[in-house]
Design a protein that fits this description.
Length: 277
């Protein structure tokens, strides 16, 4: 099962602007797809049937790829989309964060039907990752944007109540970059605080999904450089992967320990990570 990583490009960190593939030992396997519709890619998500990989492309479109890296579905260009992260919701639709509109957009899994903003535009200052739990509750992290705008918080939306958010987490040492729901039902967040600082404190932070209480802080310690942490993904074996500058770092979630660097790749500038059969 390859480990796939989106690498941002250009002004976003001088990365590759490609979807890169690595084996489980961290050996580079090249690009997963050479399709020219993949440009400055961001969010990744494997569909619930584990048959297709959905990718948010920086050229304002969403693509679905098969196991051979062939694009089999394409929204076409959606003006001003500026997609960020992506995940599947409890209703089977594909949800993507919109960096400019500052909301979340839902797309049918076919990518060719009606689109819906599930939250009002501007619902947070700068969306930095979101996820659903088993009962459909949406957790949305709000962080700091490239120009310094925004606030550090995590909001909680019960399913179907997009206008009634609850501020779940207020942690003075949190500056979120991505968010995921853990196997135990808690939420985990990659954090760089203060955002953009050369001496920022980087961590993965676990919070109680009910009351927002800080449960644990995962640190890479001496096991990894762990600079600019971004996308999070759990494996079927319970390991938590976090992509960062030049590397992908793994944590043993049950033990709360850093396993170490599983991928080292100069100029990676990773944004999202996925394991795709």
């Amino acid at each position: 099962m390859p480990l796939l990583v989106t690498s941002a490009a250009g002004v976003n960190g001088d990365g590759y602007g490609l979807l890169l593939s690595f084996d489980r030992d961290g050996k580079p396997l090249g690009t997963f797809s050479d399709d020219n519709r993949i440009a400055d890619p961001r969010g990744l998500a494997v569909d619930p049937k584990k048959e297709l990989l959905f990718l948010n492309s920086g050229n304002n479109r969403v693509l679905a790829l098969d196991r051979n890296g062939k694009v089999v579905r394409d929204t076409g260009v959606i003006p001003q989309l500026k997609p960020g992260g992506g995940t599947f919701g409890p209703d089977g639709r594909y949800y993507i964060g919109l960096r400019s509109a500052r909301t979340i957009l839902a797309l049918p899994v076919t990518l060719d039907g009606a689109r819906e903003n599930v939250l009002p535009p501007g619902i947070v200052s700068f969306p930095r990752g979101f996820a659903f739990n088993d009962d459909g509750t949406l957790f949305l992290s709000s962080g700091i944007g490239p120009s310094g705008e925004g606030e550090n918080a995590i909001l909680k939306f019960p399913w179907g109540e997009s206008l009634k958010p609850m501020r779940l987490v207020s942690d003075p040492e949190l500056s979120p970059l991505d968010l995921a729901v853990a196997p135990n039902g808690n939420i985990v967040v990659s954090s760089e605080h203060p955002f953009g600082s050369t001496d920022a404190l980087t961590s993965v932070r676990e919070y109680d999904a009910t009351d927002g209480r800080l449960i644990r802080v995962f640190s890479a310690g001496q096991s990894a450089e762990f600079r600019r942490p971004r996308g999070l993904r759990f494996s079927s074996h319970g390991n938590l992967y976090c992509v960062a500058q030049d590397e992908v770092v793994a944590f043993d979630f049950a033990k709360g320990q850093c396993v170490g660097v599983v991928v080292h790749y100069p100029r990676l500038n990773g944004q999202a990570v996925a394991l795709f059969p």
